[in-house]
Amino acid sequence: AYEIRNCDWSPDVCSSDLTCYLTSLKLTEEMNDSMRLVGLLSQIGHIYQNKKETTEKAIRILLQALLITENKKTDSLTVDISFRIGELFSEQGEYSKALKYYYSALETYAKTGKTNEAPFLIAIGNVYMKMGDFTSALGHHFKALADSKESNSPIDIISALSAIGATYLAKEDVDHSIQYYLEGIKMAQEMNAVTALKELYQEIGRAHV
Fold first, then answer.
1. Measured between alpha carbons, how far is 81 from 94 in angstroms, rounded to an integer?
2. Can you tell me the distance from the alpha carbon of 147 to that of 144, in angstroms, rounded to the nearest whole number?
3. What is the DSSP string of 145-179?
4. Which is it for the CA torsion 51, 61, 66, 40, positive or negative?
5. Do 59 and 100 form a contact (C-beta atoms < 8 A)?
6. Spatial separation of the C-alpha atoms in residues 38 and 59, rounded to whole Å
7. How many CB atoms lie within 10 A of CB 139?
8. Residue 181 near residue 208, CB atoms below 8 Å
9. Which of 29, 75, 107, 200 yields a CA-CA distance of 20 to 30 A from 37?
10. CA–CA distance from 74 to each of 99, 117, 121 (Å)?
């Protein structure tokens, strides 16, 4: 039903790990173990998405996995896979499709009863930023900031501040860009979040150019 055998599984650009996953995939399909199948498809999709030339393969494979999780009504897996598909479409510059899957992930996430929507809102805002729709981008980013503060999630607060800074920079509002980058740097310093600090300093460097 999921047309697994019709996919192009040739491991020509990937590691030997892929061959092992594909062998396991065929055996799992014969066993009709749908949830194990989802896990294998997810792993294979991860391998393919690591190379730009096989991104489309990754999307096709993850769409297969998504179909299974939706039919099985496994919300947490559906959220994860929908979000990954959104990321890949965003990287491909297919922004309307990226928004479709990000919003789908957010909608399904809301059904789980969890409340920290910031990562989804940031991702959606970033797509709008790439599209040049800065009003929608900032709307989602500021909502993410408020949500992350309410959820008391410092890492998400930093991510939201960074996203706001990036959006203001994209619309050539340098003063506001630096303002939010500095807020992010201050919080990252308080948390000793080294990776976040490095990224924020790089971004504020771009703002000063």
1. 17
2. 5
3. HHHHHHTT-HHHHHHHHHHHHHHHHHTT-HHHHHH
4. negative
5. no
6. 14
7. 15
8. no
9. 107
10. 21, 19, 22
